[in-house]
Amino acid sequence: MSKFYVTTPIYYVNDVPHVGHAYTTLAADVIARYYRLQLGKNNVFFLTGTDEHGQKVAQAAEENKQTPKEYADSVAPRFKEAWKSLKIYYDYFIRTTEKRHEAVASQLLQKIRDNGYIVEGVYKGWYCVGCEKFLTKTELVNGRCPLHINKEPVYQEERNYFLKLKELSKVILEKIKSGEYEIHPISKKNEILSRLELGVEDISISREGVSWGIPVPWDKNQTIYVWVEALMNYYSATQFLDGKKRFWPADLHIVGKDILWFHSVIWQALLIAADLPLPKHIFAHGFFTIDGQKMSKSLGNVISPKELIVRYGVDGTRYLLLSAVKFGSDGDIEYSKFDEKYNADLANGLGNLIARTAKMAESVNLPGRELKDISLNIGVAIQLVKSDVKEFTRALDLIWKKISKADKFINENKVWALERNLKISALEKLTDDILQIAADLKPFLPETAEKIERQFKGPEIKSENPLFPRL
Ligand code: MSP
């Protein structure tokens, strides 16, 4: 494989970054870092950004007494800052209000129409502004959107343009069944398949009453439905950025399970209708709850990445989020559990191994070392990141097994009490193990991996401040 293209959802600017957004973006960062080590920097493209049109953003702007654009301009940088503070290195941050995105989205929709996949019709139904979508009868619970109980859905009847999803869905069903288009985890793939097998209706892809959006190219009284042009960001960035055309189709879309339908069905339908190659793989991860409760502004339990960084440091936060739950499953996060895990795995586990080994190495003036086998420099455990199931937690488990093994080696051989020559060879072995651990850690804890390499690659190994001070 000569290139790898990974994306995150583009986040609505009506909210500021929280751990949920951070989790998705962090996962993409680990994957991008892994592929950069494998394929070289220039062959990887990692895209993230913000979703800035639609009713929800327009309403939030109005409440803030700003124009939607001013409002988006003030919130988008908060996402950039959050990713920077977590050492997330994306290649491009797209904003859907960029003129060049608007241009590509509009051309794409025109092409879909020219290909005969758009028809006119009237939409009647309930719209949830929180989800930015029309809800079907089966989705409504007691007349409300189950995800936005506090917001009443709005009844709407408008003249819209529709995408022939019913017809397109047959092709999608086949592509998912044949494995040409992969969805993970398998449980989520099966949910999509059963929904497709039940049959789907054509969907509205434009809005008459929403002015904050990209105009429908052939009808200036309508704007493109926000989800449709938002999905198009994945394609548009590859088209308007220099030298990025070769990255289409995407190799992997990472999304939360809440938006899998949009990504695995609607997005595929739009691409098929536009005659474009389809993304290869989509991974839907689970949702975090906080102390057993849904994370929400109204409950006041939203955790920001900043809060975590203050408490656990950058790599501490990366480790705790990535190891919190098996990638793909839901899970609960709790500060007390994070504290415990931080002390056990980072302060005591990794931190202590590095500190005690460096101290002993310093006492015998041990010179730094290089990993002999170059291929090990990319790390063995992280091969699991490459697997279809993106086994972050298993990879981290394997690395932590190596850490315990090295610790056990020190204790069982009482390395500190060995006579000088035996001590030196024991420490050489430990140094090699540690360098291997650092190589494995690179995509997950980049700063820590770098610090460890600097310390153990030489010229002389010296004792340094603890990597993870105990809480
Ligand atoms: N703008 C759309 C996406 C368009 S992509 C073409 C959107 N934005 S969002 O701001 O609501 O972000 C949703 C994403 O944030 C989820 O898919 C998920 O990746 C992440 N999460 C939001 N809350 C989360 C949790 N509580 N737990 C884990 N991830 C969560 O939807």
From TrEMBL:
Protein name, UniProt field: Methionine--tRNA ligase
Biological role stated in the UniProt entry: Is required not only for elongation of protein synthesis but also for the initiation of all mRNA translation through initiator tRNA(fMet) aminoacylation.
Keywords annotated in UniProt: Aminoacyl-tRNA synthetase, ATP-binding, Ligase, Nucleotide-binding, Protein biosynthesis
Highest taxon, organism lineage: Bacteria
Record CDD domains: MetRS_core
Keyword Ligase: yes
Protein EC: 6.1.1.10
BP terms from Gene Ontology: methionyl-tRNA aminoacylation
Pfam families: tRNA-synt_1g (PF09334)
Domain Methionyl/Leucyl tRNA synthetase residues, every copy: 4-147, 150-357
Alphabetized GO MF terms: ATP binding; methionine-tRNA ligase activity
Keyword Ligase: yes
Annotated family: Belongs to the class-I aminoacyl-tRNA synthetase family.
